[in-house]
Amino acid sequence: MGKLISKIPEGPLAMKWTNYKASVKLVNPANKKKLEIIVIGTGLSGAGASSALGELGYSVKTFCYQDSPRRAHSVAAQGGINAAKNYQNDGDSIYRLFYDMIKGGDFRAREANVYRAAEVSNQVIDHYTALGVPFARDYGGTLDTRSFGGVQVSRTFYSKGQTGQQCLLGVYSSLNRQIKNGNVKMYPRREMLDLVLIEGKARGIIARNLLTGAIERHAAHAVVLATGGYGTIYFLSTLAVNSNASAAWKAHKRGAFFANPSFIQIHPTCVPQLNEFQAKLTLMSESLRNDGRVWVPKTKGDTRPANTIPEEERDYYLERKYPAFGNLVPRDVASRAAKERCDAGYGIGETGLAVNLDFRDSIKKQGKEVIENKYGNLFDMYKTITGIDSYEEPMRIYPAGHYTMGGLWVDYELMTTIPGLYAIGESNFSDHGANRLGAASLMQTSGDGYFILPNTINNYLAEEIRVPKISTDKPEFIETEKAVIERINKLISIKGKHNASSFHKRLGKIMWDYCGMVRNEEGLKKALTLIKEVKDEFWSDLNIPGDSSDLNQELEKAGRVSDYFELAELLVTDALNRNESCGAHFREEYQTPDGEALRNDEEFAFVAAWEYAGEGKPHILHKEELNFENVEMKVRSYK
Amino acid sequence: MKLTLKIWRQKNAKAKGNFETYKMDNVSPRMAFLEMLDALNKMLVEEDKDPVGFDHDCREGICGSCGMYINGHPHGPVPAITTCSLSMRYFKDGDTIWVEPWRAKPFPVIKDLIVDRSAFDKIQIAGGFISVNTGAAPEANSILVQKKKSDDAFDSAICIGCGACVAACKNASAMLFVSAKISQFALLPQGRIEAKDRVRAMVEKMDNLGFGNCSNTGACEAECPKQIKLTNIARLNREFYKAF
Amino acid sequence: MSKVLFSSISKKFTMALAGLFLLTFLPIHLTINLMLLKTEPGPFNTAAHFMATFPLIKIMEVVLFGAILIHIIYGIWLQIQNWLSRPVGYVSSNKSEVSFFSKFMIWTGAIVFTFLVLHFFNFFFIKLGIVKGNPEDFYSLAHNLFKIPAYDFIYLGCFTLLGFHLFHAFSSAFQTLGLNHRLWTPVVKVVALVYAIIIPAGFAFISITLWLFR
After folding, report:
1. Is domain A475-603 in CATH 1.10.1740.10, yes or no?
2. Is the backbone of residue B71 left (phi > 0), alpha (psi -120 to 50) or beta?
3. Among residues 482-511 of chain A, which lie with CB inside 8 Å of chain B?
């Protein structure tokens, strides 16, 4: 496993996917039934891939840790889903969508993959519409779009503030159809605890039945990970609290390279932490910045109620620093600016970790009714959580961990460095570079699951048609299962005092403080020491009541946290290694005199793919050079 | 705030459960209900006691995982929200809070406050879909949908499948859940093609699973965190007899 | 076919149809009863005689009994299923905001049914000769009955409960039949309220008048 082979097809950018599909190997329908595929996760990519593969006739086994596939965290996406339909006649095209993503990702993504994601986006919208996803419509009955995430065209399809939910329920329905037809067998409340390799190929998984505690072996000809991101490494994030990196991390330890782990998007508009037991931070759609003005008091530690602070004593810092874009600067810029103000002591509220998002002027100008029409549901949501009426006083917001651009390294076929192991959706590193564009996650994850993987996986499976059904009695299954049980027993037998969450919280704080929005060498090195300390404490002071032969939510949690300690170390290592600032990765040492990110294309225009070298050994770095043949690398500027 | 919690504890599906009393001394009104339970569980683990089991995931009211019957209301006393969005500021110092799992024959208790809601999946599998294969979809704008119908379909489609309707209904009926899905598809031209088969299959499955019958009482609508309307049930009834 | 006829919705549907039919019967009954207020027995007895002998009414009588029977059997059947669908109940009683009277339909229904039985003893069985009395003079019989205070109390109580039953039943039937409409459903609800008040009030008025003022 030396060199990274990205398998990018030959030919001009716009023809690569077409050429690939025309020349890729196919599997005879009669053989498909005999080939088994395991899919982990039932978000847009996992459930989408399961349905599409089921429709093709493969025997699919799909797993999720939730009680139902309909609960995967794709459900929480709010804003919308991009596609290059150009229904607005505003000059959009596949190329423009591709370019916006490449630029938005700060030139750290693979051109061919991004172009393909943009290319299949139109098919995704067609498919969702056919599945009955109720996208917003215009009076003539056609689909409506809106502008999103600071781009100049209106290409975002949406279902009010619940686009992710509506898409996920659409995918869930197509998954259900395949379950009914017998092509997909669904295993809910199962957690993948390890990957089984036979002769170097991914051949199955070891899973724990979360209801009974039973350890199960499942074999297949290929394994697909669709397990989402690892934003909960910060403990507090916009993710579901049970979201985790364990499946991807186990695959990594079995040989799949982990790419760009430190690229994590921090979302600027979230409800700040309200109490010490807070479990998650709720996202408030970034569309609020269209009419809300962000400010902090000009005086440090000003504790007056926001409404009593006169105009001249308010610092509208985004408008001040970025006159051209003002409150609409990209997510990473807005997040860092909020952090900068709060760190400097101008933050508001009890914690000082919040800034105002004020609608006073917009309400004055446009009227309360207009604002209510646009954001009514968000204002209600904010009031439900905080009890504050944002029509009367400003919202308090603060950035929170949101989306992980990093993930398992995959080639053009979405295969990891382990033959037969695929990673799709947020769990791979592919299309968003160092920063994800708004409404691009639903688009990419849906494309991966429905349209890309079901084409590329044939290329691998065509060679597997002679492999008979794989027995779970093979020694590799027995050995891997043994390792899994040992790990569980090790966790259970610590018998310390504290629960897994309390360690997770401490880890999250370290990550947030030293490897969050702003990083520097000194802090990152300190983080490595601190992580090690908490990790050691975890392994000596964890307590899991009960045993493993039953439903045990503390054990589930502990397993995930134990993996997070290891991932955290790699994440910090990756951040230390990348001596530049790009996208969501901001290193203080590398900034322009006026505090903007300073990219280093000479030395760092590569994907950092990390190889696991064994327990306690440093990871090995592999670089995939990024060649930009179709776009010119430019400096992002929002001044 | 000081609170007394009466929580249903049941080790597993077969065990006989009972209410346990827990005293919470330091509850902040800024906590969410589930964060209060997190705090309780932290305490229990430190005492090496079995923490309270409950389903939860997104903690922002959209995944439908959480659900508890709190003081006589599914998802607690505040309308139109899920348990995870319920703030402790709605309770006052000295309150006693009764917390029970959803109760319905098709939702057997798994542990403590966790119930098995796979019956909902089974109903959806029976017919809650439009049969279109990947790649076979026509160009999206070739299907025109009246805006009003599309908006109505959306209002039905936002059901999160939490089961509060069943939990609230005196008959443990799943009609609101089923009607929401039926309505979404019945309102869209894409869904009309299979409308008859769908409604027959889903209603048959619903009946077989042992849900009760609808008596138009309206508790489901009152407790639905997504405010799904009873008009969906009327539509389901219509769709059902049109299917024969 | 049994799937169609005995699905939860079909049972409800059948019940609603039977119930609506019963709703049409009550105003007719009330109209005839109003003749009890007249001082001479002639009109009432003529009407009663007509109802008892006219062939079309005879047929409708069978339909009416059929409807009552179906309404009762299906009502009990559905209720048993409803009870079975929650084998373990809640400790804290449900506080959801609901259509209040819908919670007690089986009980208000049962009491109304008990009254019906009593009613049949009074009239129908006399007509058949099972119970003694003059089958041609229902007028006097009614007047005599309403002079008994205990009977009036039972009568008034039952009609109050019937009112409760009707109030939910009326609009609920429309909902079950899928006949809801943005504009008409609120009208149906008002009509239901009016109906549920006027019909029992009419019967009660007769009873009180005959009891206290005649």
Report:
1. no
2. left
3. 497-499, 501-502
Distance, in Å, from the CA atom of C138 to the CA atom of A224, rounded to the nearest integer, reads: 83
Q: Confidence class of residue A139 from pLDDT cuts 50, 70 and 90?
A: very high
Three-class DSSP category at A588? coil
- Determine the Cα–Cα distance for residues A426 and B205; give it in Å rounded to an integer: 35
CA distances from A250 to A545, A555, A570, B195 (A): 25, 17, 14, 44
Question: How far apart, in whole angstroms, are the C-alpha atoms of residue A216 and residue A497?
Answer: 30
What does each C-alpha distance from B134 to A57, A185, C95 come to in angstroms? 12, 19, 46
Q: Name which CATH class applies to A267-400.
A: alpha beta
Mean of the per-residue pLDDT values of chain A: 95
- Cα distance from A321 to chain B (closest Cα, Å)? 33
Q: Please give the residue that has the higher pLDDT: either A375 or A218.
A: A218
- Between CA C75 and CA C104 the distance in angstroms is 12
A64 token code pair: 């999720």
Phi and psi at C74, nearest 5°, equal -65, -40
Which of A110, A155, A331, A360 does the annotation list as catalytic? A331
Residues A201 and A223 sit within 8 Å (Cβ to Cβ): no
CA distance C149 to chain B (A): 36
> Among A111, A170, A529, which Cα is nearest to B191's?
A170
User: Which A positions 215-254 lie with beta carbon below 8 A of chain B?
Assistant: 240-242
The β-bridge partners of A192 are A207
**pLDDT digit string, tens, across residues B180-228:** 999 999 999 999 999 999 999 999 999 999 999 999 999 999 999 999 9
- Does the CA dihedral A48-A51-A56-A60 come out positive or negative? positive
Please state the domain extents for chain A: 267-400, 475-603
Question: Residue A1 has what pLDDT?
Answer: 43
With an 8 Å Cβ cutoff, are B100 and C91 in contact? Answer: yes
Phi/psi zone of residue B78: left (φ > 0), alpha (ψ -120 to 50 degrees), beta?
beta
* Residue of chain A whose Cα is closest to the Cα of B188: A132
Is A217 part of the annotated catalytic residue set? no
Full set of structural domains in chain B with CATH: 3-111 (3.10.20.30), 118-242 (1.10.1060.10)
Task: Tell me the CA distances in angstroms from A432 to A227, A257, A428, A445, B153, one per residue in order.
Answer: 17, 18, 10, 11, 33
Query: Which of helix, strand or coil describes residue B69?
Result: strand
Tokens 């989408």 correspond to: A48
Contact between B87 and A385 using a beta-carbon 8 Å cutoff: yes
Which residues, at least 6 apart from B210, have a Cβ–Cβ distance to it below 8 Å? B105, B106, C84, C85
Task: Determine the Cα–Cα distance for residues C68 and B103; give it in Å rounded to an integer.
Answer: 33
- CA A340, CA A346: separation in Å to the nearest integer? 9
Low-confidence ranges of chain C (pLDDT < 50): none
Distance of CA A371 to the CA centre of its chain: 30
Q: pLDDT-based confidence at A376, cuts 50/70/90? A: confident
| CA C140 vs CA A577, C122, C144, C153: distances in Å | 106, 12, 6, 19
Contact assessment for residue B169 and residue B212, using Cβ atoms and an 8 Å cutoff: yes
Window B:84-143, CB contacts with C under 8 Å = 98, 100, 103-106, 109
C-alpha span between A243 and A241 (Å, rounded):
6
% helix / strand / coil in chain C, to the nearest 5?
A: 80, 0, 20
Q: Which residues contact A271 (CB under 8 A, 6 or more apart)?
A: A281, A282, A284, A382, A385, A386, A396, A397, A398
B140 and A85 in contact by Cβ < 8 A? yes
- Smallest CA–CA distance, residue C79 to chain B, in Å, is 8
